[in-house]
Amino acid sequence: MIVGDRKFVEIPGSEPVELPPLLVRSAPKQRLDKIMDLAADIVESEDLLPVYAEPVAGPALDAALLDHDRRKMDLVLNLVDRYLQLVQHWQWGDSILEWIRQCETTFERSHALRPLLRADVWPHAGRSSFVTLLSDKQVRHENVDLPRAVGTRLSFRQPPPIACCSNQFLFYLNSTVAVSAYDAWSAMSPDPVSALPPERFHFQVVEM
Questions:
Q1: Between helices 174-187 and 59-108, what is the axis angle to 10°?
Q2: What pLDDT score was predicted for residue 29?
Q3: pLDDT less than 50: residues of the chain
């Protein structure tokens, strides 16, 4: 079935297919003070603040030191915020891949749905259709991009500690790496690529 510029698989019957719920686990609790300390270490070790000649003494020196501390704190808070976004995206991606596994089991148990799957090495690239289904069903969360979330999980088996992340990764490369990983994964799907008709599937999203 072709609708507009998209091709959808045809599913026998007219009844909606009940899929397992998408259980989105909350990000693991981490000590914010420890993350702040590690982010401060990144700022210090990677020389993020420019070096300039300090005034010799007096109020000008106090003002310069205060400004330096303020800019350092801004950088630390920015790094922490970006790291927590990384962890949140990883958590969503991990939950989505687990949901796809459960959907795969549901398809395997159905005579009508089983032919829609092809055997491959997990995580199956062809299963990107399930990520598209989530978008078609308007599953979303504030500040979370679903392909980026899945790409983050595909890149890391566990969320990397902030100490393992460079400032370049947190500031500039994180989203690029995740999106590139998802694009490479989804592009491995064998042609023809057909989407799952969203009106035929029903599932719940539960944030735990």
A1: 20
A2: 72
A3: none
